[in-house]
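Two records follow; treat each independently.
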Amino acid sequence: MAITLFKHKKHKIGLIILLVLIGIVLILAFIVNQYWSPILAKRVKSVVYTSSGGLYTIDFSDAKLHILRGELDIYNITLKPNTAVYNQRLKAHLAPNNLVELHVKRLIIYHMHPFMLYFQHRLEVGRIVLSQPELNVSYQQNHLKDTVTKDHRSIYQKISGSLKSIHIGDIILGDVRLKYQDYSGNKLAISELKEMNLSATDLLIDSASQTDKSRVMYCRDIVAELNNYAGQSRNGLYKYKIKSLRLSTKTSRLDIQGLDLNPVRPDVFFKNSERDRFYVHLDTLRIDNFDYKGYHKYRVINASHMTLSGGVLNLSGNPKFTQRTTDRTHTYPNFGLKEIRTDINIDTIDEKNINISYTEFNHKSDQTGTITFNNTSGRVLNVTTNKEALAKNNICTINLTSYFMNRGKLDAQFTFNLTDESLPYTYKGSIGPMDLTVLNPAVMTLGLIKVNTGQLTRFDFDIQADNSVSKGKVALLYNNLKLTVLKADTINDKLKHMTIASLFANVMVLKHNNPDSPGEIPRSFYVIYERPRDYPFFKNIWHTLLTGIKPCVGLDEKVQQDVKNKIADMAIKKQERQIKKEQRKQRRAERKLKRELKKQQKEQAELNQG
């Protein structure tokens, strides 16, 4: 077959030409590889040094060009900051907040056009893939806004002397190992990320793109992805983890899936902290129009919209006895927001399908009670610590819809003053119809009462408060309310009925309906409640509302005092009756003893006579 193929002269000539071309290509590839590495190294080093103003240098050990595949392999790349230049800029207050160091074992450039680079001074690349890059980033807050330098030229203007343009289709960094060192706090904080991927598309540096504001770092889009990230708070009381995170510069959107904040065991937590204990889980968290540049440079959190979807928030009050001198205003949302040492400005936060619970320990019952707000959705407006934003609007507003104890529909609105030192806030709303017996898991341990029967028609509240006093109106409309009064049985670790007190409350004190009769004006109460200094935010709200609920069911202060006095009188009378009973019993015993003695004396006398 081979003899037949090459029996004609023209076939032999064609074969010879093909072999000659292959030889020329191989020789050319050898020559290019001999001279390409020095040329490429010189160009790359020049571009990096010039574009960074001498702050960064780059080096690599070897480069191999495959002409037929249009592929370039570069080995052992190192990008490092020049510490001498950084220190000079630091003294001149021009140093950046972030310093980067990059190590790459192998970089592959696909669809490279070396002749275009050499003859036309244009760097044209289809794709760049970095294998197992190691990225070290250190952050130190040297300034709070962009510094002004003497050199106002763009990167393109700086490199235009050696290159007319740079265009790269895709840049892919897979399995990035990132070490992040944050020097901005009181002590060094180090984070290490492993399952991280970075990609950039359509990087273009030329005369037109230098003014294109739709690009970030001259790229059409940069995407960062992080999987299975976990860490621990600085105080060691919380562990956090993220299932996945994705940030796109093109959409300015940050998406987080599976966010968890887990505290340590309650005994360990409350032994080491006097703060309330949180557990948080979110199915998804999304931030729109996220200013990633501001966060990267200055740790500024600026966004137009945040969405929290599907999750759980459990809050447990600290069960310790606290001194009355300990003011727990740090639990107020407006106080806590001010204490965050970060510039935050979020216009709108939407919550969807969040289950919220608050657990408190009652020292009288020696047990905990839990209040739940199920399937909570709502909107928060103007969450900010930014001074300019606060000057325009210092009120944060929260509108919520929830199901109290998973039954009664709750509609509520909160407002918080974010600048006033007295921490003013308001809350108003209503709870719709529900069976009051569902409150027993909370009121039995927290209020030492049990609801036997009762139907809520409507509960309305409108409160104005600050860090010292709460004032407002409370109205509770209900039917057929009957209660049992409880007290703690410390020996058997349970609650037991106070029969007489319960009978007295239901017959003599308690109003079983509000209004008492159809068509009458329902009872309501104007609350004035002074917050004990050691009461946290949620506990203060609960006791403020409870102060208004009691008069609505017939337990105003006068009645409560009368009840206490009557119960005390009943207890005294009971004790007196018990004493009298014991005295009568003792007298009967004494008379019986005397009779026995007389009988014995008589028997003894008869025995003596005999």
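The next record belongs to a different protein.
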Amino acid sequence: MCGIVGYIGKREKREFLLDGLKELEYRGYDSAGIAVLHQSEINYFKASGKLDNLTEKTKDFRSLGFGIGIAHTRWATHGKPTEINAHPHWGEFSFVIHNGIIENYMEIKKELQGEGVSFLSQTDSEVIVHLFEKYIKQNFTAQVAFEKTINSLKGAYAILLISKIAPESIFFAKNAVPLIVGRNAKDELFFGSSDAPLIGFADEVIYLEDGSYGWANEKEINLYKNSQKMQPNFKLLNSSKIYAQKDGFRFFMEKEIYEQSIVTSETLMGRIKDDKVFFEELSEYDFNDIEEIKICACGTSYHAALASSYLFERIAKIRCSVEIASEFRYKEPLLDKKTLFLIISQSGETADTLQALKMAKKAGLKTLAVCNVDNSSIVRISDVTILTRAGIEKGVASTKAFATQVLVLWLLSLHVARSKGKLSEDLCKTEIKALRGVPTVLKVNEELHEKLHRLSKRYLHGHGFFFIGRDIFFPLALEGALKLKEISYLHAEGYPAGEMKHGPIALADSTLFTVALMPQTLLYDKIKSNVEELSARDATILAISPKEFALADDFIKTQPYEHPMSEFFEMMVITQLLALEISVRLGNDVDMPRNLAKSVTVE
């Protein structure tokens, strides 16, 4: 969702704040703003659109010497993405930035308006600064005023507030949205929505707990929870991160597609020993009393979950169901303590998935997270976590995160099968052989990429796309359609191929593009028949298969692998590259598609 950065110290504030926002731009880019409090004066700048607009607007601003600053990049939730709705929001003498949603903001806003307070924006965030100033005017100290403000809020939030009445302090609060505080030996303090803006500046950090709040200055950090003072728990911050660069690629997404071969090698490292799957994280985890697996996720992670459900039932012989987290939260689910609750999230901060995890914990279920970001909220709350090791993914449309999620879940299905005595030696050898081959499968063939580039020019019109597949290739069809719609803005749907005749085939004509996933190792004759039905109704067919298909208008020939998952990963790369090339031809911003953000930390 939105990105937050803050700073206390003597360095040039503008440079640090803008560089920090650049690291967080994937979290929101509808608008951005900064505010710097220096020598009892606050300078602020806001700009709609991308961060470059704010950089240009602040090019002549300097703030040397001791001061404090806050910065924000926004993905709109309340109010349109305009400059007036951009953060920071101000009152008479204070400024605030906020990530999350204040659920009771209308109640607070009406009360303040009744007391004569005027609002400039349409956002929920603006109530925070006006509520704080209301308490100041009632002669409370800044610290008490901030505490009373936070206690009045309901919802999810990460907040940084600065005020002329406390010119050396930043007030902060965190609930259900990530916020980190860092420091170094130079008595500088740093704030961020994630590690990324702090690396290279802070030596150690505090990952704030839900419900915590406080204020900090150059000399001290005062941290509270439930009105009780807490001792800050600092952890060393890894300072060896190499910032992601495009390395000659046109887009981060393109680079990340090519990186999948490398990162899946990292995912597998140390997890296959003596021809057996080994998870050090699960060395003390007992699966014997687990009778069912329930997986909860959103978006691309949901598609990874669906694919894995076939593997858990086929390999581990254990019942597996998959839930969309935003639906699971409100369906009053029946939860059995013999169920393993497995959550999947790239960021570890996905709001709906996080709340689903908390529900499972409250119900007494064992919980296991598959996640890419260590120290994220989901990682900290879950009983145990398996990290996917995908590295930083800057493209909003997920690629390598999906690949590593599916790979981890495939490994996990084998681990569960062995733990429950369901895995034969022959099947284990077959699966391990295929697993070891995944990084090779994922190496992008330059000739294939060029063919997809040329092919893409024929798929820029029409009234939509159907991606179809069967078995594990149905979730891959869903993911292929999602990738295309995310970055090209063309209508695309994923369907189980056998369902086409139950309604969707009514749409078939020459301007309906059908991307058919036709593996030779799994139900080939069945899907061939389904595609023939579409072809007979004049649908335009793009077939992806190791077997020549005479009725295809366009054909992408894949390698004749022996294992379905090898075909799965090769077809995954093809659908990713196809979406990329169509989007490029349409002139879209591949890395930052409209209306989307990388980490969805609100409902």
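Discussion point: The two ends are 10 Å apart (CA to CA). How would you locate this feature using only the token line?
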